[in-house]
Every structure is written in structure tokens, then in C-alpha cells.
Amino acid sequence: MQAQNPCDSASTTLLAACTTVLCLGLAACSPRSNPPAGAADATPSVQQVHAAVAQAADLSDPASFADARRGFIAAPKGQIKDAAGAVIWDFDSFAFVTGAAPPTVNPSLWRQALLNNQVGLFKVAEGIWQVRGFDIANMTLIEGKTGLIVVDTLTSRETAAAALAFARQHLGPGPGSQAGSQAGSQAGSQGGQRPVSAVVFTHSHIDHFGGALGVISAQEAKARGVPVVAPVGFMEEATSENVLMGTAMGRRAGYMYGSALARNAKGLVDIGLGKAVAYGQVGLLEPTVLVGKPMQELSIDGVRFIFYNVPGSEAPAEFVFALPDLKAFGGAEMMSHTLHNLYTLRGAKVRDALKWASYLDASLQWVGDAEVVFNQHQWPVWGRERIRDFIVKQRDSYKFIHDQTVRMINNGLTGPEVAETLQLPKVLQDHLNTRGYYGTVKHNARAVYQFYMGWYDAHPANLDALPPVEAGKRYVALAGGADKLQATAQKAFDAGDFRWAAELLKHAVYADAKNKPAAELMARSFEQMGYMAEAATWRNVYLVGAQELRQGPPDKGLPKAALLDMLGQTPIERFLEAMAASLNAQKAGDTRLRINLVFSDIGESHVLDLANGVLHTRKGMPAADANATLTLTKPFFLQMLTGTAGAKELLLSDQTRIEGSKLDLAKFFSLLDKASGTFPIVTR
Ligand SMILES: [Zn+2]
């Protein structure tokens, strides 16, 4: 079946809406052919690697497949569309993921892709259900006294609404039907079916809250007093995580998630944690109950929750929770069926492996006598012994990577050397649920190096090394010219030494972006590396690299309005930090300007001071000696930032007023860079 990529639709709203100064670090789409132009078959050397992988482990893994199918109630069909009719999610697009692994996919990754393909509504335990495969994450539903407690709301409004509607359709009115029919006139309860009685956000990543407004409107949540529960720090992290670095992260996320790849055996098959990310409207509900203590018990719609805060593990604000009366435990995203990321390839601050391992260790107590652990990605684990094993193996994987990397650093090894050397012990490798489908041992080891030692490996030659293009030109000259370099790279390719081929060709393509034969051979090398990779994220990175070598980086023009619901909740300070970091200092030279920004709707003003090529901003009374004072509303400000309002609107809108020098104000805005988020990665 021909897969449809949501990015093909011009009207689709994308998460990676790159804007003047902000962008969300999830994914970027670009035009692509389907199947990818020039995609080759797997070479014999790749097929040999696959055969060895299949031999080394029992990939039939009946226990995981049984867990992933356990409690199945119903599977969805067709597509989820937005209000304009654009496809947000296509349930059939991964229908090709079935049967034996094709030669172009690592068989271990294929096992994961098959497991993540078990989509639908599932019963986890009495009074607990999960909707899986409507987005990258799961929506968990817990039966409360008066309605459904929704744990996490997926990435986009459309997929969240569809997931809840699907569950309601199959769960029926339930024991709370009295309350349900009383609340039946409200938007949060459809046709007398179970109303939403609480919303719980497990952590501050967007795939767990972005679809909140598809579950219940802010007005209804307020009117009915529906509690919205989140870990301490949730709001700050959720609204600001990607504002400052979003443009670059969004561009790089396109590599990791492979959103511009065709969905077929030579393209996107999985992303390790789930099938794909949904591209729809993103919003947020402000929490009404923040869990601030390390351990805190709350009764939510009659259900006893014991929350445990685990900040700084998988997310800066996150909790897990026990449901002691239901003998169940929610592991949020601190637990999953893959080695997770200590460093995420889209680019982010590295995570603390020791902290993560220590929370997992504590979880062995927190789970109590739970008979099931369910997480916000993938399938649950049942049985006390298996739960213990599931947690222990994850704990020990992170701790092993941490401790052994530190040991090697103290013995003088550098990041690439640790990555090349470090291997989990066989007993951990054999536990397929901690294999590297999303994070990998290799890139997590380098994360530990970075966490403690930073970018410098202490070798003087690397202190001030030549930048890529300069080095590339000299290496090409050393090789005796591009043709000779390519001949050597071809030999490496033919021998299955794709890493060396890519290393050589990188110099040729950097030295001369027009060298098409070198770019094509590098694309072919990346392709084989992608086919070989066990990690979905590595596969996607290589295959997107290959695609961009053939087709170029994505063009501009990503829609931006999808984020406005969420950005409305982001403090002005976060945008001003991003604005300061978009100042083109070279252009600014010795310009000195003082601008007042007065937000008439929220009663807030900020003074912006430009001098010495630096923009300082501070909240406070407008300065009397400012060059200009711009009075505006926050929605208008957001329109400016997301590019939906420009200079003309600024001058003509009834939401704005300018006092002082319009010329100075125009000059100020002209000094801010407008990063398109389409910068080249595999070329220069
Ligand atoms: Zn997640």
C-alpha cells in the first residue's frame, strides 16, 4: 500500500513551525518522492549483518508480542483529519510492517516496528485502558467515580480527540453513566458517555500534553472544576523547552524522526518509541494541581494515586505513580521498551544517567505489589517477577553505560573510543526491551562523556582544528584530487566499509558541493548504514541524510499557526530571550537603541536595551528616554513572532500603538535574524 505522508498536504499544520525567533523541536517535513529516488537494495554485506543479528537473539520474542496484544478491544481504521481535511494520522500507512523482516531493515528493529504496530484500545487492568498507536505516545484512561481520568493527551488536538472518541465508543457509558448523562450536555462528554473527570500530565514533553484541548476545552475544564494534575515545574518546562533552540532542533528533529521519508521498507518503518509523530494543532491546559513533594498521595475522582517526582531523568519535570488499589503502576516515560536517550540526536542538553538509574532503583520499591506496569509509550508488563526484571534491566543498562564510560574516561579514552569499545554485558543485551531502538549504547556513552567532560577531548590538534570545508579541501588535495578520493571511497563501499566511505566522501562534498558523484556515493553509503542500523533513530538519520544529498534540504514555507494555543501560555520573557539570541550583532555594530514593549492586555511591560552588540531585556516600567514605545497585545506579539503579522500589520493594526520614532523601531526589528530552519546539514 502506498503510504501517505501528512507532510504532503500544503494545508497541514506542522509541529516544526519554524519562525522568526522560535520553533518547536519536533520534526520538519520536506518534499520527497515515494519511494525515495535512487534508493538501493541492501548489499550482501548488510544482509550478512542482518543474518548475524537474527542468529544472535530470539527475535520471535513471544512474551513481548503477547504483552503488546494483551487486553485488545478494538483497532481503528482509516485516517484522522484536521478541520481543513488534511490528514494528521494514517492508520494504514504502516500496514506494510508485517511478516518477516525485509533485507533493507535490521531484523531486530523490524521486531520493534512490529510490536509498535499493535495499535488500538487495550484493557490494561480492571478500570485501566490504553489507546496506543494514535500518535507517538499512549493515552491512558482510568475509571474514576464520575468519569474518565485521562493520563497524557498525545501531541495534537486531532489525534487526542480521536483517541478519546474511539475509547468512548468501545467502552460505553460505564458505571459512572449517571454522572455521565448529567454531564452529557457538556462538550467533554459526548452523547451521555463518560465525561473527562481529570487530566494528568506525566511530564513536560509535547507528545504528552500537546493534544490536551482535544480532550477537554479550557472553558469546560474550568466550568466543571476538572482537576489538571502535573509534576512541579511542568508549566515552565512545557512552555519554554524549545523556544530558544527550536529552529535548529526542529531542523535536526526531521533527521531523527524521518518525517520526510516515505513509509516503506526502504524508508520510515518506526521511530523506536512508536510509529511516528502526529502533525496537528498543539495546545496546553494549565495545571490546577501541581505535585511538588518527592512523594505525594492524592485522590483523583475517587482513585488513590501515589505520585513520585523524578525530575531530571527522562524529562526536567516528570512523575511516575502507583495506583495501590488497582495494583498498577504508571512508569510515565522513565520506563519503556527501548534504551532511551541520554542524548537526543535532534540536539538537547544531555540527561543524567545516574539520576535516571537511581529513580529506577527506587521504583523497585515504589511499584509495591503492582501486578502491572503501564507506561506512556508502548505496551505494559504484567507479573511481579517480570516487572522487577523489566525495571532492573533498564536500571542496570543506564548504570552500566554511566559507570563503564566514566572508568574508560579515567583511563584516557575519548568519546568515539568509548563508543567503539563499550558493550553491554550479554545478559543485558539479551533482554531485547533495553536494546537501542531509540537511544543507543554508542551515543549514550558519548552523552556521559559530554555530561562530565564537554566537547574538548584534550588533544591539542583538536583545540583549534580546521572547520569542515577548509579541512575537506585539504584532504581532497592530499588524496590527489576528488576522483582519487572517490575511487578509494568506492573500494571501501564495495568492501562494506560504509563508515570509512562516508568519512572520505564527507570531505569531497564539503570541498565541493557540486560534486554530484561524491554526493551520490555518500548517499548510497548512508543508505546501507541506515538499512543496517538497529536503532530507528539512526536509520532515519542516515536515510534522511541520503535523501537530502539527492534532493537538497527542505524548502521553506512551513505553516506556523499550529503552535499558537501553546505559545499563548509561554511567558513573554522566554520570547525575549530568543529575540536577544536572534540579534545580528554584526549588523547592529555600535547601534544603541532603547525600546519599550507594553502589553496592554496582560498589564506587563518590558524595556529592551541594545548596546555593544547585545540585547538586554528587563520587565519593568517603560523607560522615559526610550527611542520608541510599542504598545501591543500578546496575541499580536505572537503573530509577529510566528510570521503571521508583519510590518504592515504592525503599523495598521488597532491592537498596536507606536510612540516615539517609528524609524528607530523599524531599525530595531531589522536587526533581528529570521532563521528559516532549512539550513543544509550534509552539504555546505
Ligand atoms: Zn514521549
In short:
By secondary structure, the chain is of the alpha+beta class.
Largest sheet strand order: 1-4-5-6-7-8-9-10
* C-alpha end-to-end distance: 36 Å
Question: What compounds sit in this structure?
Answer: zinc ion
Helix/strand structural class: alpha+beta
Number of strands: 21
- Gyration radius, to the nearest Å? 26 Å
Q: Kindly state the mean pLDDT as a whole number?
A: 91
- Stretches where pLDDT is under 50 for at least 5 consecutive residues are 1-33, 179-189
Treating each run of at least 4 consecutive H or I residues as one helix, how many helices? 25
Helix content range: 25-40%
* Overall geometry: globular
Descriptive tags:
eight-stranded mixed sheet; alpha+beta; disordered N terminus; binds zinc ion; globular
Question: Could you describe the 3D structure shown?
Answer:
- The chain has 25 helices and 21 strands.
- It has an 8-stranded mixed beta sheet with strand order 1-4-5-6-7-8-9-10, with helices on one face.
- Strand 4 (120-125) and strand 5 (128-132) form a beta hairpin.
- 52% of the residues are buried.
- The model is unreliable at 1-33 and 179-189 (pLDDT under 50).
- Zinc ion binds at residues 137, 205, 207-208, 333, 377.
